[in-house]
Write a structure and sequence with these properties.
Elements (H helix, E strand, L loop, with lengths): L22 H41 L6 H8 L3 H15 L1 H11 L1 H14 L5 E3 L8 H5 L19 H13 L4 H4 L4 H13 L7 E5 L10 H4 L4 E6 L2 H13 L4 E5 L12 E7 L7 H14 E11 L8 H7 L1 H5 L5 H5 L3 H7 L8 E6 L1 H4 L1 H8 L13 E8 L3
Parallel strand pairs: 1-4, 2-3, 2-5, 3-4, 5-6
Antiparallel strand pairs: 6-8, 7-8
Helix pairs in contact: 1-3, 2-13, 4-7, 5-11, 7-11
The structure holds S-adenosylmethionine.
């Protein structure tokens, strides 16, 4: 393995280019990607078949009716061997991507630090990074290692450390490596929602966009392609991810304003944003904070502004079997608020936060890139249905407009 080149002079090293594992390590990483795909696609199909052909009929024979909700599906499936095998493989597939890239991260540690320092110094894209040394980290973040990532999102191993962010970034390539719709398009959600809004609301041209739980900002950057004049902002509690995001986007010429803040109590002024978005965020936070976040969103939006949040579909939007499959993360993936969140009704949450009920929406939107622009337009006009949810084929979006 050649030594990682340190950044020289006026160039910021693109950190993604440093992911160049040697042969045996790359082979191990490919195995992990394949294991995950095998669990999420192949074993999932076998498990569904076992439910339909054996466990649901057996439940009906015992109880006199088919399983009616996810708890009944869960009790029908609890001892099923396909479900157990699926769970074991998924759990290992969840745990393995991060250690599989840690050697790559450690070997390049100095190069990451150097790239970050260079991005800070040169600041060619004009993005900003505000970290809060006194930040009050929410308890739920510290008390569990979210998603089985050692050190969760925010462990810091030294001053100005971004390596935990890089573990997530490189590990994410392995995590999604067997899933073609996700592998090649890390900003798929932002890209999809931006195109959806542009098509559905052609007169809505947001000037300031905020992304909550932004991570490195991968799902807010695509808004710049659809709304090139917009200012984009991202907040997150994790400093390493924000440092990595700042380094990446400065290297790539994308102006993004990142800050370390709790999405439920941001320091932006009232009426500051036109659009507030998020992806994979709400299921990770306690329900009491969810409500606070949406009320803060309402405060932050100007009149006529919109929220458009992507999340897992809630129980009321899917059948009991799929609700059971989705809730797997709540039982097995160190996400203790996940099931409680998915039991809520997103449109009601928006209306309770102040958004005009008539404007509140919840729907499945096809993944823009894989569906294709033409089909996407036909979907938006009602001519085509959305592909079923799962493995990145479509995204569940909910939101509303501030009318007063
Ligand atoms: C699953 S990640 C999603 C990251 C990003 N949205 C994406 O699509 O890649 C969830 C993110 O939410 C952040 N987070 C958790 N609680 C938060 C809070 N109260 N305020 C802001 N960010 C939070 C985590 O640090 C993490 O980066």
């Amino acid at each position: 393995m050649p030594e990682a080149p340190l950044t020289q002079g006026d160039t910021i090293q693109d950190i993604e280019a440093l992911f160049d594992p040697p042969h045996n390590r790359a082979a191990r990483q490919r195995f992990v990607s394949a294991l995950r795909k095998h669990a999420l696609v192949d074993k999932a199909a076998e498990m569904k078949d076992a439910f339909e052909s054996a466990e649901a009929p057996a439940f009906k024979a015992r109880k006199g009716h088919a399983p009616k909700d996810l708890n009944q599906v869960k009790s029908a499936m609890a001892r099923n061997l396909h479900y157990r095998m699926y769970s074991v493989m998924r759990l290992h597939g969840q745990e393995m991507p991060w250690p599989a890239v840690m050697d790559d991260v450690e070997e390049n540690y100095d190069a990451f630090q150097d790239a970050f320092a260079t991005a800070r110094r040169l600041n060619p894209a004009g993005g900003t990074l505000e970290l809060d040394p006194e930040f009050d980290m929410p308890k739920y973040m510290v008390e569990q290692e979210m998603h089985h990532v050692p050190g969760s999102f925010m462990a810091e191993h030294g001053p100005d450390d971004l390596s935990q962010g890089v573990v997530g970034f490189f590990g994410g390539k392995i995590f999604n490596g067997g899933m073609p719709l996700r592998r090649d398009n890390p900003g798929a959600v932002g890209e999809t929602v931006a195109h959806f809004l542009a098509l559905k609301h052609p007169n809505f041209r947001p000037k300031r966009i905020l992304d909550l739980g932004t991570g490195i900002g991968r799902n807010v950057v695509p808004y710049l392609d659809v709304y090139p004049d917009a200012e984009v902002y991202g907040v997150d509690v994790s400093a390493p991810g924000l440092r990595l995001g700042h380094t990446l986007w400065e290297a790539r010429g994308k102006r993004v304003h990142l800050s370390q803040q709790n999405g439920g109590m941001t320091n932006f002024p009232d009426d500051y944003f036109d659009l507030i978005v998020s992806s994979f965020f709400f299921h990770e936070i306690p329900v009491s904070l969810t409500k606070k976040v949406l009320r803060d969103n309402f405060r932050l939006l100007r009149k006529g502004g919109m929220v458009a949040h992507m999340e897992l579909p809630p129980n009321n939007a899917v059948d009991p079997y799929y609700a059971f499959v989705l809730d797997w993360d709540g039982y097995n993936n160190n996400e203790r608020d996940y099931c409680e969140y998915r039991a809520l009704v997103p449109k009601n949450l928006c209306a309770e936060a102040g958004f005009d009920r008539d404007t509140c929406f919840a729907m499945l939107v096809p993944n823009w890139r894989s569906f294709g622009n033409d089909k996407f337009a036909r979907w938006a006009s009602g001519e085509l249905p959305s592909p079923p949810h799962g493995n990145g084929a479509s995204w569940f979006i909910f939101g509303g407009t501030k009318m007063r």
